[in-house]
Amino acid sequence: MTDEVVLEASGLRKAFGDLQAVAGVDVTIASGETYGLLGPNGAGKTTTISMIAGLLEADAGEVVVAGRRVTTRAVKARAALGLVPQELAIYPDLTGRENLDFFARLYGLGTKARRSRVDEVLDVVGLRDRAGDLTKTYSGGMQRRLNVGIGLLHRPQLLILDEPTVGVDPQSRNAILENVEQLAGAGMAVLYTTHYMEEAERLCDRIGIIDQGVIKAEGTRRELVGLVGGHDSIALAASGPLDAAVKAAAELPGVTSASARTGGLDVVAANARELLPGLLDAVAATGAQVTSVEVTEPDLEAVFLHLTGKALRD
């Protein structure tokens, strides 16, 4: 991830009659960063995404993508972003290749560039072998992958993915997630919404939790978990002088508690990943022999419930 800001949305507000759907949302995403926007149904996610994508005019605030202000009328600014909506945006009576070629024409790609880019995108989404088949014969997962491919055709600097894996088979779901990882690794900024917490855990560098039209909390996974006082648990299978090992572990900075049990010891710490090398060295120095290590980290679900009072899929 770089420090180059691709998306800067500030002070976004939108009301529908008496309903304040979005009440002052700020989102910033850098090149190569995947930002997850999580919230229960009705929290304001779709309205926020629609304003960022230039599909809905904000009542207040502004959106800047790649240095250009985005509005419903700003065609050049919107060319820097790609949108993959929840609803499929493909033509069932066209082949996969014909769908991509059609949208590539809309993006203004010339003939030579269009042919080359369509082939590249088919490879990216893993549909080269089905490119000549009508998309109405595709599985739901294949249609979703094609939907993602359409959003990539013009090489956007910001890709917006609104629940792209809903209702897809495990193979296609994993393919989509791998695509997102590769795109972010290549420098693309990604705004990602999902109803699957494990996807957010896997993909997102930072996460914003939105509810009732406002961002309740934002940060890395570790930062968010810290909001509810979460700690990591480390289970060491070990033999030897366990009482001495427990004492050595308890003296390490960041350790909240350490205790012996049959066949090993349990350690609770603020950051297991940083602590683990020092912990293993300290335990080994007592003469104890460690045969296995299991680390359990608190998850985002607990944070989400704490902040919104709801499960992610509610």
Task: Give a verbal description of the structure.
The protein has 314 residues and is an alpha/beta fold. The protein has two domains: 5-226, 3-Layer(aba) Sandwich (Rossmann fold), CATH 3.40.50.300; 231-297, Alpha-Beta Plaits, CATH 3.30.70. The protein has eleven helices and 14 strands. A six-stranded mixed sheet has the order 6-7-8-3-9-10, with helices on both faces. Helix 3 (96-106) packs across helix 4 and helix 5 packs parallel to helix 6. It is globular, with a radius of gyration of 23 Å.
Task: Give short descriptive properties of this protein.
single chain, 314 residues, alpha/beta, Rossmann fold, Alpha-Beta Plaits, 6-stranded mixed beta sheet, 4-stranded antiparallel beta sheet, 11 helices, 14 strands, 36% helix, globular
SSE diagram, text form:
Layout: E1 5-16, E2 19-30, E3 34-38, H1 45-52, E4 60-65, E5 68-70, H2 75-78, E6 81-84, H3 96-106, H4 111-124, H5 140-152, E7 158-162, H6 170-185, E8 189-193, H7 197-203, E9 206-211, E10 214-219, H8 221-227, E11 232-239, H9 242-250, E12 255-261, E13 264-269, H10 272-285, E14 289-296, H11 300-308
Parallel strand pairs: 3-8, 3-9, 6-7, 7-8
Antiparallel strand pairs: 1-2, 1-4, 4-5, 9-10, 11-13, 11-14, 12-13
Helix pairs in contact: 3-4, 5-6, 9-10
